[in-house]
Design a protein that fits this description.
By secondary structure, the chain is of the alpha/beta class. The protein contains seven helices and six strands; from the N terminus they run E-E-H-H-H-E-H-E-H-E-H-E-H. A six-stranded mixed beta sheet has the order 2-1-3-6-4-5. It is elongated and about 95 Å long. It comes from Fibrella rubiginis.
Length: about 210
Amino acid sequence: MEAIVYNSKGEDTGKKVDLSEAIFGIEPNTHAIYLDVKQHLANKRQGTHKTKERAESAHSTRKLKKQKGTGGARAGSLKSPVFVGGGTIFGPRPRDYSFKLNKKVKALARRSALSAKAQANNVSVLENFTFDAPRTKDYVAFLNALQLSDKKTLLILPDVDTNVVKSSRNIQKTRVMTAAQVNTYDLVHADQLLISADALDVLQTILAN
């Protein structure tokens, strides 16, 4: 599978690169994608939610009324969940939402996400580029040249480029990361993948194993 290489101005450079069939040409495994995205979102949860239960409510334990002769049920304390301000029944407690997922499943999920994007023609390979200084307008011009200003984009670089990262971070619907940081959630979330030529080599090396 071949892909045209574009420059940062959106022009065809006349070059082509090979996209690995084992990474960009497989039948997407939607269940693997689901599991990896589920784990990614679960691992981001803090799990610090908490409500006060009966033993933690700040109320006296004195009897509210006499136990018999009222015609109603006995009431022993305002801490009871049946009263306003009482403890919560089965309320949330701090917990860890993260769970384990095998490395091979995560790799399959990334390959499946990349293949799905490639099949939908939502993968563009770019000539390696950088900016002279961090300027948001330069990144805006870059997106306009590629006619992607209204889409969610994910730019994948081989290494951290401070000028490119800082130029993009104030722009909505834009994400920049290195090939080693790529995860299934960000691949699925983006409308268009922009992969630099060097990052493509790194990405294919990582996912080939």
